[in-house]
Amino acid sequence: MTLQVLRKLVRAVLVPSLAFLFVTCSDDPAGPGGLETGALSFNPVFSSSAASLIDLAQVHVTLVRQDDGTIAVQDTVDVAADTDSIDLNVTVPVLTAADTFLLTLTLVDTSGDTVFVGGPTAVVATTGTSGSDTQPAVNIPLDYVGVGSDAVSVMITSVQPVVFFDDSTLLEAVALDSLGEPIPGTPIRWFSLDSARAVFSSNSSGMIVGGNQRGDARVVAELLTGPMDTGLVAVQPLPSVVAVVSGDDQQGVVGDSLAMPVTAEVRAADGLVVRNAVVVFSTTDDGMATPDTVRTDSLGLAETYWVLGTAAGAQQLDVTVLGVNGVTTAAVATAGPDVAMSIQIAAGDGQSAEVNTPVSANPTVLVTDAFGNPVPGAVVDFAVASGGGSITGTSPSSDAVGNATVGSWTMG
CA–CA separation, 99 vs 72, rounded Å? Predict the structure, then answer.
C-alpha cells in the first residue's frame, strides 16, 4: 500500500491553505481497476497575519511513522520568487487502512534562515472506496522562529509624525527583547486603521501615504509573534500661508540678538494651522537666525532668535516654508550702532590763523563703533594740546551721523 502526497502551500499568505494526502493501495491483486483510494488533509495555519512579510525560498516536509519512528517522507520544495503556491507530490508506503504519521513543516526564507516551524502533528491516512472517507483536516500551526521571534514588544519610534495630502513620510518602529533592547532586522508589519486618511505603500514598509481627509490616522506596527503598537499620524493639507505673529519690527544693536524671538505661524487653505511644516529663517544682512530651520509645533508655530547684522539701519529676516512654492513672508528690524569705539578727524585739521584769532572751520570728528557705524549722542572732549590758545564748547555730543564739532578754536 502506498500513500501519494499532494501538498499545496500558499506563499506569503494571509489565509491558510488546505493540503491533501491521497492514499493508493498498490498491493491489490485485482490490479489498477480494483485500487482503493483514501486521503488525509492538513491545514497550515500561520500564527500571525503578518506572515506575508516573509519571502519564502523553501519548504521542508517531514512525515514520520508514529508507531516505529521511521521517516516516511523527507522532502524539500523550492518556492519560486514569482509564485504564491507550490505543489508537492510524493509516494509513501501505507501499512494499514488508517496509518498515523507525525507531520513537520519547516519554512526557510530567501536568506537561508528557518522562519516558520509547524509540528510534529499527528495526521491519519485512511483508505476507503472514495475520498469521502477522508479524516477532518488537521491544523498545523506555523510558528515564527526567525529574527525577533524572542521580541516581547514593538514600539513606534517616530515622534509626532505628520504626512501631507498626497505626500508620504517614513515611519519607524523597533522590536524590543525582555530587557528592552532593540532587535535589529525583526520583520514589522504596518497597517492603517483609518485608510480614508492614510495608507501604507506596503505592509512591510513604514512608508505611509496621506489621503485627502484632515485628521489623525491610527497606525499599527505588528510583529509576527503578536505584539503590536498603535500610534497617530497627523494628516493635513499643504501649507498655503505663513505670517509673522510676534517679534516683528523690533529695534536692537548691531551684532546682538533681538530681545524677543521671531515667531511665524503656518496655515493651510482650510484656515487651520499646519503642524510639522519646515520653516526656514534667513537674512542677507550679515546676521543670522538661531535656529535657522524649525518645524512648526502643534499650534503651527515656528520660533527663532534673530541676531542682527553689523550694518546699522533697516534689516530683514526672510521666512519661508520649505517645499512649497510662494509660501513666504518677512520680519523687519532696525539695528542701531554699538558703543563708540573710535574717533577720527572729519574736518578742520591743518588750518592756520593769526594769533588770538579763531580758525575759520571748527574742528569736527567722526565717532564710530567697532563695525564702522556712526555713533550719535557720544560725548567728545576737546582740549588744546600745545601752543596755547583756547576753545569753547569743549564737550559736544555727536549728531545723528556721528559728527562732533567743537564750539570754537582761537589760536594762542
Answer: 11
Nearest-angstrom CA–CA distance, 183 and 177: 7
For residue 215, what are the β-bridge partners?
A: 235
Taking only the tens place, the pLDDT of each residue in 144-164 is: 999 999 999 999 999 889 999
Q: Which residues neighbour 181 within 8 Å (Cβ) at sequence distance 6 or greater?
A: none
CB atoms within 10 A of CB 95: 12
Residues with Cβ within 8 Å of residue 306, at least 6 apart in sequence:
247, 250, 257, 258, 261, 262, 281, 283, 287, 288, 289, 317, 331, 333
C-alpha cell at 289: 537666525
From the centroid of its chain, how far is CA 333? Answer: 36
DSSP letter for 374, please.
B
- Name the grid cell of 174: 523597533
pLDDT, one tens digit per residue, over 358-405 is: 999 999 999 999 999 999 999 999 999 998 899 999 999 999 999 999
Rg (CA), the chain: 42
Alpha-helix residue ranges (DSSP H) falling in 172-306: none
User: What are the b/e assignments for 346-374, b being 16+ CB within 10 Å?
Assistant: bebeeeeeeeeebbeebbbbbbbbebebb
**Cα–Cα distance for residue pair 230/194, rounded to 1 Å:** 12
Single pTM value for the model: 0.68
Q: If you ran DSSP here, which 8-state letter would residue 355 be given?
A: T
The rounded distance, in Å, linking the Cα atoms of 86 and 111 is 19
